[in-house]
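We emphasize that the prediction below concerns an isolated chain of 259 residues; any contacts that depend on oligomerization or on bound cofactors are therefore not represented. The input was used exactly as deposited, without trimming of termini.
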Amino acid sequence: MGGGFKQRLLALKRETHALYLAARHPGTPWYAKLFVAGIVAYALSPIDLIPDFIPILGYLDDLVLIPLGIVVAVKLVPPDVLAECRARAAEAAVDGKPVSRVAAAVIVIIWIAMAVAVAFALGIAPAHAQDRAAVLKAVAADIEKLKADYPQLRDFSVATNFRAEPLGIYYAFRTHAPARTGGWTSGVPNPDADGVWFDIDLHDPESTLQKHTQPMTTARLCLGESRVSFLMLEGRETRSLYGPIWNALAKQGARECAR
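Result of the prediction step, given as a C-alpha coordinate string:
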Protein backbone atom coordinates (compact mmCIF):
# COMPACT_ATOMS: atom_id res chain seq x y z
CA MET A 1 0.00 0.00 0.00
CA GLY A 2 2.80 2.41 0.95
CA GLY A 3 4.56 1.84 -2.37
CA GLY A 4 1.37 2.50 -4.33
CA PHE A 5 0.76 5.77 -2.53
CA LYS A 6 4.32 6.86 -3.19
CA GLN A 7 3.94 6.09 -6.89
CA ARG A 8 0.72 8.10 -7.07
CA LEU A 9 2.44 11.01 -5.32
CA LEU A 10 5.32 10.94 -7.82
CA ALA A 11 2.84 10.80 -10.69
CA LEU A 12 1.02 13.81 -9.28
CA LYS A 13 4.28 15.75 -9.08
CA ARG A 14 5.12 14.87 -12.71
CA GLU A 15 1.63 15.87 -13.83
CA THR A 16 1.99 19.19 -12.02
CA HIS A 17 5.31 19.80 -13.77
CA ALA A 18 3.77 18.86 -17.10
CA LEU A 19 0.98 21.37 -16.55
CA TYR A 20 3.57 23.96 -15.57
CA LEU A 21 5.14 23.49 -19.00
CA ALA A 22 1.73 23.44 -20.71
CA ALA A 23 0.85 26.81 -19.20
CA ARG A 24 3.85 28.23 -21.08
CA HIS A 25 3.27 26.29 -24.31
CA PRO A 26 2.14 28.34 -27.36
CA GLY A 27 -0.28 25.58 -28.31
CA THR A 28 -2.32 25.93 -25.11
CA PRO A 29 -5.46 28.13 -25.47
CA TRP A 30 -5.39 31.36 -23.47
CA TYR A 31 -8.33 30.39 -21.26
CA ALA A 32 -6.66 27.08 -20.43
CA LYS A 33 -3.40 28.90 -19.66
CA LEU A 34 -5.17 31.08 -17.09
CA PHE A 35 -6.73 28.16 -15.27
CA VAL A 36 -3.70 25.89 -15.53
CA ALA A 37 -1.34 28.65 -14.39
CA GLY A 38 -3.48 29.28 -11.28
CA ILE A 39 -3.65 25.59 -10.33
CA VAL A 40 0.04 25.01 -10.98
CA ALA A 41 1.12 28.16 -9.12
CA TYR A 42 -0.80 27.06 -6.05
CA ALA A 43 0.37 23.45 -6.30
CA LEU A 44 4.01 24.57 -6.56
CA SER A 45 3.75 27.19 -3.85
CA PRO A 46 5.95 26.44 -0.83
CA ILE A 47 3.16 27.89 1.36
CA ASP A 48 -0.35 26.43 1.67
CA LEU A 49 -3.46 28.60 1.80
CA ILE A 50 -4.67 26.31 4.61
CA PRO A 51 -1.60 25.52 6.77
CA ASP A 52 -0.93 21.81 7.31
CA PHE A 53 -0.84 22.22 11.10
CA ILE A 54 -4.61 22.84 11.12
CA PRO A 55 -6.21 19.45 11.89
CA ILE A 56 -8.00 17.83 8.92
CA LEU A 57 -8.52 21.12 7.05
CA GLY A 58 -4.76 21.53 6.70
CA TYR A 59 -4.65 18.59 4.28
CA LEU A 60 -7.81 19.51 2.37
CA ASP A 61 -5.95 21.33 -0.39
CA ASP A 62 -3.28 18.61 -0.76
CA LEU A 63 -5.72 15.69 -0.84
CA VAL A 64 -8.76 17.19 -2.57
CA LEU A 65 -8.42 20.69 -4.04
CA ILE A 66 -5.12 20.29 -5.90
CA PRO A 67 -5.89 16.82 -7.38
CA LEU A 68 -9.35 18.01 -8.47
CA GLY A 69 -7.87 21.14 -10.03
CA ILE A 70 -5.28 19.09 -11.89
CA VAL A 71 -7.98 16.77 -13.31
CA VAL A 72 -9.87 19.80 -14.69
CA ALA A 73 -6.67 21.42 -15.98
CA VAL A 74 -5.65 18.26 -17.86
CA LYS A 75 -8.97 18.27 -19.74
CA LEU A 76 -8.39 21.85 -20.90
CA VAL A 77 -4.96 21.23 -22.44
CA PRO A 78 -4.87 19.89 -26.03
CA PRO A 79 -3.82 16.17 -26.01
CA ASP A 80 -0.79 16.68 -28.24
CA VAL A 81 0.49 19.57 -26.12
CA LEU A 82 -0.09 17.58 -22.93
CA ALA A 83 1.77 14.55 -24.32
CA GLU A 84 4.75 16.71 -25.26
CA CYS A 85 4.82 18.40 -21.87
CA ARG A 86 4.52 15.08 -20.02
CA ALA A 87 7.55 13.78 -21.90
CA ARG A 88 9.54 16.89 -21.05
CA ALA A 89 8.45 16.66 -17.41
CA ALA A 90 9.60 13.03 -17.21
CA GLU A 91 13.02 13.97 -18.60
CA ALA A 92 13.34 16.84 -16.11
CA ALA A 93 12.11 14.81 -13.10
CA VAL A 94 15.64 14.33 -11.81
CA ASP A 95 16.02 18.09 -11.40
CA GLY A 96 13.03 18.36 -9.05
CA LYS A 97 9.84 20.37 -9.56
CA PRO A 98 9.88 24.17 -9.91
CA VAL A 99 8.74 26.39 -7.06
CA SER A 100 6.24 29.25 -7.41
CA ARG A 101 7.39 32.08 -5.16
CA VAL A 102 4.82 34.42 -6.71
CA ALA A 103 2.00 32.15 -5.54
CA ALA A 104 3.58 32.00 -2.10
CA ALA A 105 3.61 35.80 -1.97
CA VAL A 106 -0.06 35.92 -3.03
CA ILE A 107 -1.00 33.44 -0.31
CA VAL A 108 0.83 35.50 2.31
CA ILE A 109 -1.06 38.58 1.13
CA ILE A 110 -4.34 36.66 1.44
CA TRP A 111 -3.40 35.64 5.00
CA ILE A 112 -2.66 39.26 5.93
CA ALA A 113 -5.91 40.48 4.37
CA MET A 114 -7.87 37.85 6.29
CA ALA A 115 -6.14 38.78 9.55
CA VAL A 116 -6.92 42.47 9.03
CA ALA A 117 -10.56 41.64 8.21
CA VAL A 118 -10.89 39.59 11.39
CA ALA A 119 -9.26 42.37 13.42
CA PHE A 120 -11.74 44.91 12.11
CA ALA A 121 -14.65 42.55 12.75
CA LEU A 122 -13.53 42.11 16.35
CA GLY A 123 -12.88 45.82 16.82
CA ILE A 124 -9.16 45.32 17.47
CA ALA A 125 -7.77 46.86 14.31
CA PRO A 126 -5.07 49.48 14.85
CA ALA A 127 -6.70 52.87 15.30
CA HIS A 128 -4.63 54.51 12.56
CA ALA A 129 -5.96 51.90 10.10
CA GLN A 130 -9.55 52.68 10.91
CA ASP A 131 -11.67 55.21 9.06
CA ARG A 132 -12.14 58.35 11.16
CA ALA A 133 -15.79 58.70 10.17
CA ALA A 134 -16.53 55.09 11.10
CA VAL A 135 -14.81 55.51 14.47
CA LEU A 136 -16.74 58.66 15.36
CA LYS A 137 -20.00 57.14 14.18
CA ALA A 138 -19.39 54.20 16.53
CA VAL A 139 -18.70 56.64 19.38
CA ALA A 140 -21.94 58.48 18.59
CA ALA A 141 -23.84 55.18 18.63
CA ASP A 142 -22.48 54.40 22.10
CA ILE A 143 -23.44 57.89 23.32
CA GLU A 144 -26.97 57.38 22.02
CA LYS A 145 -27.23 54.22 24.14
CA LEU A 146 -26.73 56.36 27.26
CA LYS A 147 -29.99 58.29 26.80
CA ALA A 148 -31.95 56.15 29.26
CA ASP A 149 -29.59 57.07 32.11
CA TYR A 150 -28.77 60.66 31.18
CA PRO A 151 -31.81 62.94 30.61
CA GLN A 152 -29.61 65.63 29.07
CA LEU A 153 -29.09 63.29 26.09
CA ARG A 154 -32.82 63.21 25.37
CA ASP A 155 -32.45 64.86 21.95
CA PHE A 156 -29.22 63.11 20.94
CA SER A 157 -29.13 60.73 17.97
CA VAL A 158 -26.50 59.49 15.56
CA ALA A 159 -28.57 60.69 12.60
CA THR A 160 -28.78 64.23 13.95
CA ASN A 161 -25.57 64.79 15.89
CA PHE A 162 -22.96 62.86 13.95
CA ARG A 163 -21.76 64.91 11.00
CA ALA A 164 -19.55 63.81 8.14
CA GLU A 165 -18.60 67.33 7.02
CA PRO A 166 -16.97 68.79 8.94
CA LEU A 167 -16.33 65.47 10.63
CA GLY A 168 -17.37 65.35 14.27
CA ILE A 169 -20.05 64.87 16.93
CA TYR A 170 -21.82 68.04 18.03
CA TYR A 171 -24.58 68.33 20.63
CA ALA A 172 -26.25 71.15 22.56
CA PHE A 173 -29.12 70.69 25.01
CA ARG A 174 -30.65 73.58 26.95
CA THR A 175 -27.91 76.10 26.41
CA HIS A 176 -27.67 79.88 26.32
CA ALA A 177 -25.41 82.51 24.85
CA PRO A 178 -22.08 82.72 26.68
CA ALA A 179 -20.85 85.64 28.72
CA ARG A 180 -18.03 87.43 26.92
CA THR A 181 -15.34 86.81 29.50
CA GLY A 182 -12.59 85.47 27.26
CA GLY A 183 -11.31 81.94 26.75
CA TRP A 184 -12.76 79.24 24.58
CA THR A 185 -15.92 78.93 26.72
CA SER A 186 -16.97 82.40 25.59
CA GLY A 187 -17.12 81.21 22.00
CA VAL A 188 -19.45 78.22 22.44
CA PRO A 189 -22.97 77.70 23.84
CA ASN A 190 -23.01 77.52 27.63
CA PRO A 191 -25.34 74.99 29.28
CA ASP A 192 -28.22 75.81 31.61
CA ALA A 193 -28.22 74.08 35.01
CA ASP A 194 -29.72 70.94 33.45
CA GLY A 195 -28.06 71.25 30.04
CA VAL A 196 -24.94 70.04 28.28
CA TRP A 197 -22.81 70.95 25.28
CA PHE A 198 -20.02 68.92 23.69
CA ASP A 199 -17.99 68.75 20.51
CA ILE A 200 -15.85 65.76 19.56
CA ASP A 201 -13.65 65.25 16.51
CA LEU A 202 -10.56 63.47 15.22
CA HIS A 203 -7.92 65.56 13.51
CA ASP A 204 -4.30 65.63 12.44
CA PRO A 205 -1.83 66.51 15.21
CA GLU A 206 -0.58 69.41 13.06
CA SER A 207 -3.99 71.15 13.05
CA THR A 208 -3.81 74.81 14.10
CA LEU A 209 -7.54 75.37 14.64
CA GLN A 210 -8.15 77.15 17.92
CA LYS A 211 -10.23 74.34 19.43
CA HIS A 212 -7.42 71.91 18.62
CA THR A 213 -4.78 73.98 20.41
CA GLN A 214 -6.71 74.87 23.57
CA PRO A 215 -6.13 72.76 26.73
CA MET A 216 -9.65 71.33 26.62
CA THR A 217 -9.04 68.18 28.64
CA THR A 218 -6.73 67.20 31.46
CA ALA A 219 -4.69 65.11 29.01
CA ARG A 220 -4.06 65.09 25.29
CA LEU A 221 -5.93 62.18 23.72
CA CYS A 222 -4.79 60.25 20.67
CA LEU A 223 -6.48 57.57 18.60
CA GLY A 224 -3.91 55.91 16.40
CA GLU A 225 -2.32 58.66 14.35
CA SER A 226 -5.21 61.06 15.01
CA ARG A 227 -5.56 63.57 17.83
CA VAL A 228 -8.88 63.59 19.70
CA SER A 229 -10.65 66.87 20.40
CA PHE A 230 -13.15 66.41 23.25
CA LEU A 231 -14.67 69.68 24.42
CA MET A 232 -17.60 69.66 26.85
CA LEU A 233 -19.49 71.96 29.20
CA GLU A 234 -22.02 70.54 31.68
CA GLY A 235 -24.78 72.12 33.75
CA ARG A 236 -24.26 72.03 37.50
CA GLU A 237 -27.40 69.92 38.08
CA THR A 238 -26.60 67.22 35.55
CA ARG A 239 -25.01 63.86 36.07
CA SER A 240 -21.60 64.09 34.41
CA LEU A 241 -21.22 62.53 30.97
CA TYR A 242 -17.46 62.94 30.84
CA GLY A 243 -16.68 59.42 32.08
CA PRO A 244 -19.15 57.57 29.82
CA ILE A 245 -18.08 59.51 26.72
CA TRP A 246 -14.43 58.94 27.57
CA ASN A 247 -15.22 55.22 27.81
CA ALA A 248 -16.88 55.32 24.38
CA LEU A 249 -13.73 56.90 22.95
CA ALA A 250 -11.48 54.44 24.78
CA LYS A 251 -13.53 51.56 23.36
CA GLN A 252 -12.45 52.69 19.89
CA GLY A 253 -8.80 52.94 20.95
CA ALA A 254 -8.41 56.47 22.37
CA ARG A 255 -5.53 56.80 24.81
CA GLU A 256 -3.45 59.53 26.39
CA CYS A 257 -0.90 60.68 23.84
CA ALA A 258 2.63 59.39 24.33
CA ARG A 259 3.97 62.91 23.95
